[in-house]
């Protein structure tokens, strides 16, 4: 019996450790940059839409247009892990909100998901800000 106990403890530790989860991250009301007012520069909502799509495409995000100031983004990683987000935006700021996922250990009751999802959202946020900065510097 003693010889089975260490193996059972190790198996349990691996099973628990393999199910990592973190509080879900939503990027809310993120300003594009501290640059001067975009209206003075003449950028339209469509310009921001195009920049967001370009930014996401760099990391495999595909977007569908849901109306003015609303995109739905989808990403598939290794054709195994899937996430869908709402991207709400205007000419001053944007938000990225969780919509759904597959194979990312999402737990709605605890508001948790695999930490890689949070990295994807953080990267998308940074990429959008960088793309808008490029557009404004243009």
Automatic annotation (TrEMBL):
Q: Which domain of life is it from?
A: Bacteria
Keyword Signal on entry:
yes
The positions making up the signal sequence are: 1-21
Q: Which UniProt keywords apply?
A: Signal
Name of the protein this chain belongs to: Lipoprotein
Say which species the protein is native to.
Answer: Thermohalobaculum xanthum
Its taxonomic placement starts with: Bacteria, Pseudomonadati, Pseudomonadota, Alphaproteobacteria, Rhodobacterales
């Amino acid at each position: 019996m003693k010889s089975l106990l260490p193996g059972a403890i190790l198996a349990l530790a691996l099973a628990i450790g393999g199910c990592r989860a973190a509080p879900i991250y939503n990027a809310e009301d993120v300003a594009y940059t501290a640059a001067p007012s975009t209206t003075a520069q003449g950028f339209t909502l469509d310009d921001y839409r195009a920049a967001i799509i370009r930014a996401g495409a760099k990391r495999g995000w595909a977007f569908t247009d849901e109306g003015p100031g609303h995109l739905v983004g989808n990403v598939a990683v290794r054709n195994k892990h899937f996430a869908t987000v709402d991207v709400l935006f205007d000419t001053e700021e944007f938000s990225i909100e969780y919509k759904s996922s597959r194979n990312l250990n999402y737990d709605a009751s605890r508001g948790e998901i695999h930490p890689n999802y949070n990295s994807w959202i953080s990267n998308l946020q940074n990429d959008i800000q960088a793309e808008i900065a490029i557009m404004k510097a243009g």
